[in-house]
Amino acid sequence: MSEKINLVCLPFAGGNKYSYRPLFTENSAVFNVITLEYPGRGTRIFEELTSDIDALVNDLFNQLKPILSKGNYAIYGHSLGGLLAYLLAVKIRENSYELPKHIFITGASGPSATSRQTKRFHLYPHKEFIDEVIILGGMPDEILQDNAMLEFLEPILRNDFKVSETYIHKAAEPLNIPFTVITGTDEDLKAEEVLLWQNESIPAVDFIQLEGDHFFIMQHRAFIINAIAEKLTKQLETF
């Protein structure tokens, strides 16, 4: 393989373009990590947040255009990022660009899962909302114990939860893209709703389950990185 593939990463709820640094701690010989940024956080902190999922997908699509023109890319997203990865791929197909070589999803049910709409964490009072964030995991203790930091992050988290919890699925033709979907054994996800990812892909989806809660990815860094590299290497060797 003569050229590295670009792995375009979409952050989880409350995340920014730096959120995957603890996961991708070392350079890969197979892929470059490029993380997109949602408005209202990180390098775009002075922009307004948006809970309009169509506007968010359009924003991501515009960020991705320089990479789309070159092709040779894959997309990865965890949780909210997984849902957005799928919607972004649909948008790419609608605009007749080259599709990603692979879509990697972690910690997310299929986009047609109905339980997503039954959760209304974004409307919870402060204490109950923070309790749910703690249950999900992934939030360092130093942040949970810092009231000023929590006050700063709470509107971002609420916004991102709203994006997911108010999403209504619009059925689309399955994508002719290989999917790999990895979930944790202790996540609050229904197995039958994870399997719904197969409805969105023509090739058979590779479903994998690892020990851990919603942020199992941080306990299985080596596995995740190796799985992505192996899948992409095998795929690119067939071209």
UniProtKB/TrEMBL annotation:
One GO biological process term: lipid biosynthetic process
Family matches, as SUPFAM superfamilies:
alpha/beta-Hydrolases
Q: Which residues form the Thioesterase domain?
A: 7-231
Instruction: Tell me the domain of life.
Output: Bacteria
Q: Which Pfam families match?
A: Thioesterase
Q: Where in this chain does the entry annotate a coiled-coil region?
A: none
Protein family (similarity comment):
Belongs to the thioesterase family.
**Which PANTHER family does the UniProt record give?**
S-ACYL FATTY ACID SYNTHASE THIOESTERASE, MEDIUM CHAIN (PTHR11487:SF0), THIOESTERASE (PTHR11487)
For this entry, the protein name equals Thioesterase
Taxonomic lineage is: Bacteria, Pseudomonadati, Bacteroidota, Sphingobacteriia, Sphingobacteriales
